[in-house]
Design brief:
single chain, about 70% helix, about 270 residues, mainly alpha
Length: about 270
């Protein structure tokens, strides 16, 4: 026992001091992936959501540590930024300008509020719209808070910038990705599995396009990944809250859903 305590102390010290190394990053990301996969196959919606959220939070944590300390995960940031900076074109510049502009936090919140108003006018209960707006605002504010703590990122090169992104990289991408995700979740409620798959694919394509615009504008890859993870966490929690609320809504304007725990879209 006497030899066990120093060993444990040494392991803890190693983890704390070497968090931003490859030896820590890869196992942590591997654990996060395993937990996320478990959350996809485990029975019970509550356990599944908890596992997925924990996995995403773990992955976000290790990415943020590497951004803060300039760790191993940031090693490719400058190279990717330099390659993209060397392949600019007028067409891609216009694409990036639109993509970055659409990622503004104010735009994301405004779009979420507009969708919420439409839902209410179509006889959806107000809490459902509030969950939509809440998930987006949570993504924006969480991203902004992390951006403030982490700073603009060590790997941001002095390249072409369509707009001044400052420290709002995480908030910009997280908010827009959350809007797309929550809109797809709501649109797919009570619909066929094929339609929900198409909506999910559309969200992935949209987020990849927005992330590509950020990368093209000089945002480091780790910052983009962190923004997507923030959005994924808020989307997972928002989806769970929406499902929990919908399961308690009595029949009325929203009839019984084809999938347990959800209400169908009105109209």
């Amino acid at each position: 026992m006497s030899g066990t305590v120093p060993l444990v102390q040494e392991m803890v010290t190693e983890v704390v001091t070497e968090t931003a190394t490859m030896e820590i990053a890869l196992p942590v990301l591997g654990i996060a992936l395993a937990v996320f996969v478990a959350g996809m196959v485990v029975a019970g919606s509550g356990q599944a959501i908890g596992l997925r959220t924990a996995a995403l939070a773990l992955a976000l944590g290790i990415v943020c540590v590497h951004i803060r300390d300039g760790g191993w995960l940031t090693g490719a940031d400058r190279s990717i930024t330099s390659v993209l900076a060397a392949h600019h074109s007028a067409g891609l510049d216009h694409f990036a300008i639109v993509g970055v502009a659409l990622g503004a936090p104010a735009v994301a919140i405004a779009v979420a509020a507009a969708i919420g108003m439409v839902l209410i006018r179509r006889d959806w209960p107000a809490p459902a719209a509030s969950i939509m707006l809440g998930a987006v605002m949570a993504a924006v504010f969480a991203g902004a808070a992390l951006s403030t703590v982490l700073g603009p990122g060590r790997a941001v090169a002095g390249v072409w910038q369509p707009v001044d992104t400052g420290n709002a990289v995480l908030a910009n991408l997280a908010g827009t990705a959350a809007v797309l995700g929550m809109a797809a979740v709501i649109a797919g409620i009570g619909r066929s599995r094929n339609l929900r798959t198409l909506l999910a694919a559309a969200v992935v394509i949209g987020v990849v396009a927005l992330a590509g615009a950020r990368l093209y504008a000089g945002v480091p890859l780790t910052g983009v990944v962190a923004g997507v993870l923030v959005a994924a966490i808020c989307l997972t929690v928002g989806h769970a809250l929406l499902a929990a609320f919908a399961s308690r809504v009595p029949p009325g304007p929203l009839e019984a859903a084809s999938e347990p725990g959800f209400v169908p879209a009105a109209g």
